[in-house]
Amino acid sequence: MLRDVTWRVRPGERWLVIGANGAGKTQLLKVVAGAVWPQPTGRERRVYRWRGAAFRAPQGVLDAIAYIGPERQDRHDRYGWNATVERVVGTGHFRTDIPLDALTPAARRAIRRCLRQLGIEALAARRFLTLSYGERRLALIARAVASRPKLLLLDEIFTGLDAHFRARVAAWVQRISRSDLPWALAAHRAIDIPEAVTHAIVLDRGRVAYRGRLMRAPIEKWFLPARAMRRSRVRARTGTRGALLVRLEHASVFADAIQVLKDLTFEVHSGDCWVVHGGNGAGKTTLIRTLYGDHGVASGGTVLRDGIEPGVALEAFKVRVGLVAPHLQTDHPPYLAASDVVVSGLRASVCLAEPASAVERRAARAALGRLGIARLASRRLGELSYGQVRRVLFARALVGRPRLLLFDEPYAGLDPRSRAALRAALEMFATARTAVVIATHHRDEWPACATHELELERGRAVYCGGVRANS
Predict the structure, then answer these.
(1) Exposure of 395 by Cβ count < 10 A (0-12 exposed, 13-18 middle, 19+ buried)?
(2) Is residue 195 in some structural domain?
(3) pTM here?
(4) Nearest-angstrom CA–CA distance, 170 and 157
(5) Three-state SS across the chain?
(6) Same structural domain for residues 216 and 296?
(7) Residues with Cβ < 8 Å from 309, sequence gap 6 or more?
(8) What Rg, from alpha-carbon coordinates, does the chain have?
(9) For residue 463, what are the β-bridge partners?
(10) Using an 8 Å Cβ cutoff, are 40 and 222 in contact?
(11) What is the domain range of residue 390?
């Protein structure tokens, strides 16, 4: 995954790390963080200079390095870590993964200062898993600040953030850049490059393609496919809507005793292409999971699904639905082969209770092939980059030729070329009468064939109807 990499990070340097999905960005940051060991060759050296001493292994300096990325955030879901935000940030103060020590008054004051820096002091008593995606990200940044690091490794920290939270994180990055604290930030979008960046390292298939002072012109060329993606156009459908697939009526949804969706009426017909947007915490993810059947509707509301009547299992609906969502990336174990993940989409399951049949294996290979990743079929998820796993989940969603596609921030963690390819695949299905519901923060990710939009604010619909001209 990495080959013959030479890299030095000095005090005051602020590095941009870029490259395509699978280039090795996350692996490089993990090697530096001490989470991954280089394979011994007899030539490699890894040296940390700290407090006048040189360490050949990271054990002596691990407490001085803070790593923030989607995988750390996903870990809380995977293991059900649901402490309060104050306790989560406290693990940074005490440099542990989970809360082990009681918080002293001095620790509480230090934690409050960290929360205040990110503007989330009001979340201190909230349980971590009740937070929105963006709120969780800010809580983990506060956790990193609480650890008092001497090196920051920031892996796609802007992914999944709305404009408000993005501005908060950007302001924080700008503040820490006034000191000699070095950091390295991996990014896939041009808008995610902080002004304070001083250096860049570009990876290509595990090798260093460029390393040195930041030169904006050649670096920004790498992001051009994203702009090309915005220019794509597909003719939107017009005419009568098709059959009703799913309907919510006066639906309220609660998570851990907190109301997330409030009195929402919303329906999806065959041929619809809905865009759901709104800030972090608006309820987009909860809506997607409610439509799929992972959340129930509170008393007083109803949910109707095509073909689901009393006595009919919900799985009869789920097998006709394709789903791409961040929690699926967490739910599938790292030892599972990519082809088995795709087959699980035919069964609306996580993992396989029984081995895949020959027909299912052929369907999985065809789905992976349509997305240009057939070479990954036998690879285990743990061997793939975050973006490669996301492409496997796309294949999982599309393998059964679904009637309804539900996408929650589907392009998160993808490089510009991958985003363009997967957007083309999504729009191909959307124009073939497959209904689509996509939740996203980025206007350039709206399908060109979008027919409707739903804008959410704090769980309520502030607009629900046809796509507005000024959206």
Answers:
(1) buried
(2) yes
(3) 0.85
(4) 10
(5) CCCCCCCCCCCCCEEEEECCCCCCHHHHHHHHHCCCCCCCCCCCCCCEEECCEEECCHHHCHHHEEEECHHHHHHHHHHCCCCEHHHHHHHHHHCCCCCCCCCCHHHHHHHHHHHHHHCCHHHCCCEHHHCCHHHHHHHHHHHHHHCCCCEEEEECCCCCCCHHHHHHHHHHHHHHCCCCCCEEEECCCHHHCCCCCCEEEEEECCEEEEEEECCHHHHHHCCHHHHHHHCCCCCCCCCCCCCEEEEEEEEEEEECCEEEEEEEEEEEECCCEEEEECCCCCCHHHHHHHHHCCCCCCCCCEEEECCCCCCCCCHHHHCCEEEECHHHHHHCCCCCEHHHHHHHHHHCCCCCCCCCCHHHHHHHHHHHHHCCCHHHCCCEHHHCCHHHHHHHHHHHHHCCCCCEEEEECCCCCCCHHHHHHHHHHHHHHHCCCCEEEEECCCHHHCCCCCCEEEEEECCEEEEEEECCCCC
(6) no
(7) none
(8) 23
(9) 455
(10) no
(11) 230-466
320 with 248, same domain: the answer is yes
Nearest 5°: phi and psi at 307?
Answer: 85, -5
Q: Choose one of 190, 207, 224: the last residue of a domain.
A: 224
| Residues 54 and 153 both lie in one domain | yes
| 301 located within any domain | yes
Q: What is the dihedral of CA 87, 155, 341, 379, to 10 degrees?
A: -130
pLDDT reported for residue 234: 44
Is residue 27 domain-shared with residue 146, that is, in the same domain?
yes
Is residue 214 located within the same domain as residue 298? no
**Structural domain total, the chain:** 2
Instruction: Give the position of tokens 């983990």.
Output: 140
Distance CA(183)–CA(310), nearest Å, equals: 56
* Tens-place pLDDT, residues 295-347: 999 999 999 999 888 778 899 999 999 999 988 888 898 899 999 999 999 99
Q: Are 187 and 272 within one domain?
A: no
Amino acid code (one letter) for 92: G
pLDDT of residue 226: 46
**148 and 21 both lie in a single domain:** yes
Kindly compute the dihedral angle of the four CA atoms of residues 207, 44, 156, 198, in this order, to the nearest 10 degrees: -80
Contact call for residues 243 and 306 (beta carbons, < 8 A): yes
Give the per-residue pLDDT at 159. Answer: 87
Both 202 and 252 in one domain: the answer is no
Q: What percent of the chain has pLDDT over 70?
A: 95
Q: How many CB atoms lie within 10 A of CB 306?
A: 17
Residue 69, pLDDT score: 83
